[in-house]
Amino acid sequence: MTTINHSRRKWLSLGGVVLGAAALPNSVLAVVSTPKPRLLRLRNINTGETFSSEFPNTGFSSVTLQKLNWFMRDWHINKAHRIDPNLFRKLYQIQGGLGLRNTEIQILSGYRSLATNNSLRRRSRGVASNSYHTRGQAVDFRIADVPLKRVKAVAENLNNGGVGYYPRSNFIHVDTGPVRTWRG
C-alpha cells in the first residue's frame, strides 16, 4: 500500500493538464465571443434630433418603433407614418458592412407625405411621383467621413431593395422595394 505508482500518477497529472487546457480555450472563447450590443445611432439633420438604441436580433420593441416613426417623420409638416422596420435593419447591415459598429448615420429624408413629395417634385426632377418615401419604406442618408461610393457599394451588395446614388447631393437612397439601382 505504501508503494507509489509514479507511472499512474504521471498519467493522471497529464490528464489533468489536458483537461485544464481544453477548458481554458472555452472560457477564453466565451469572454471573446460574448456579443457586443448592436447599436444604431441616427441624426436627423433637418431637426437636429438624435436617436440611439441597441438593435436586438429580434427587432425593435413597439415603443422603440413608435419613437423611430416620429424620428423619421415628414419634418415639413410634423407628420409621422409607420416606417418599415426592415429599413432600420438595412441601415444596420450597411453600417456592419462598412466595418462600423457605432457610427452616426445622418438622415436627410425619411417619410414624406404626398403633399411634401409633390412639392419636392415641382422643384426637382429627381423626386419620384410614387416614391417609397411616401410609404415609409425609404431613407436618404450619408455617413460622415465614409466615401459615398463605398456606402453605395455596400448597400448594393445587400441585394435587397433599391439603392440610389446621388454624389452631387452627397447622399444615398435605400428602400425596401424591389432590387434596383440608379444614379441621380
Summarize the topology.
Elements: H1 6-32, E1 39-44, E2 50-54, H2 62-71, H3 85-97, E3 104-109, H4 114-123, E4 138-142, H5 148-158, E5 162-166, E6 171-175, E7 180-183
Parallel strand pairs: 1-3, 5-7
Antiparallel strand pairs: 1-2, 3-4, 4-6, 5-6
| Gross morphology | elongated
Broad structural category: alpha/beta
- Uncertain segments: 27-31
| Average pLDDT taken over every residue | 87
- Helix fraction? 25-40%
The ordered string of helix (H) and strand (E) elements is HEEHHEHEHEEE
What proportion of the residues form beta strands (DSSP E)?
15-25%
Total number of helices: 5
Nearest-angstrom radius of gyration? 25 Å
Distance linking N and C termini:
90 Å
In spatial order, strands of the major sheet run: 2-1-3-4-6-5-7
Major sheet: 7 strands, mixed
Give me the count of strands: 7
Tell me what you see in this structure:
Helices cover 39% and strands 20% of the residues. The protein is of the alpha/beta class. A seven-stranded mixed beta sheet has the order 2-1-3-4-6-5-7, covered by helices on one side. Strand 1 and strand 2 form a beta hairpin. The longest helix has 27 residues.
Keywords:
20% strand, 7-stranded mixed beta sheet, alpha/beta, 184 residues
In short:
Helix content is 39%, strand content 20%.
